[in-house]
Write a structure and sequence with these properties.
171 residues; alpha/beta; globular
């Protein structure tokens, strides 16, 4: 699948929803490149989060610009990137660079997210920041191109649900 119909997808949501798992599998299924959004964070953001400090909108701006540039560079080839994209304003910022971007939003309850985040090893995001992310989260609205899925479902099922939602006329 290549060309103008090849999708650009942001797998969004708070920490622990399985953005990387869904994103890598979705990219493979679509035959496009995957980018781990965490790798696009400025060093200062990683250090701040590692210290247990929540990012501000100003902190997130350069990171969102990097994600937006990554999407814009793949307008013809398609791609999937993980990015929390917690607020509508953040998603709007990404849409400026990539107007056709589709947001896949895996969701789970707070207890499941906390369990997942606490069980991770070698990740900079501490479980203590989960509540700040949940407080900032603005779910997709009906006028946004996207789909919400159950993060606790089998990842292969989630890939198929998102692929179905990407088909013309699916929304």
């Amino acid at each position: 699948m290549t060309g103008p119909q090849t999708p650009l997808v942001v797998v969004m949501g708070v920490s622990g929803t399985g953005k990387t798992t869904l994103g890598t599998r979705l990219a493979r299924a679509l035959g496009v490149e995957f980018a781990e959004g965490d790798d696009l964070h400025p060093r200062e953001n990683i250090e701040k989060m590692s210290a247990g400090l929540a990012l501000t909108d100003a902190d997130r701006a350069p990171w969102l610009d990097r994600v937006a540039a990554w999407l814009a560079d793949r307008g013809d080839s398609g791609g999937v990137v993980s990015c929390s994209a917690l607020k509508r304003a953040y998603r709007d910022r990404l849409r400026v660079a990539a107007p056709t971007v589709f947001f896949a939003h895996p969701v789970a309850d707070r207890a499941e997210l906390r369990r997942r985040v606490r069980s991770r090893r070698d990740h900079f995001m501490p479980a203590a920041l989960l509540d700040s992310q949940l407080a900032d989260l603005e779910p997709l609205t009906a006028d946004e191109s996207g789909w919400t899925v159950d993060a606790t479902a089998d990842p292969d099922l989630l890939v198929e649900q998102v692929r179905a939602a990407l088909r013309p006329g699916a929304e």
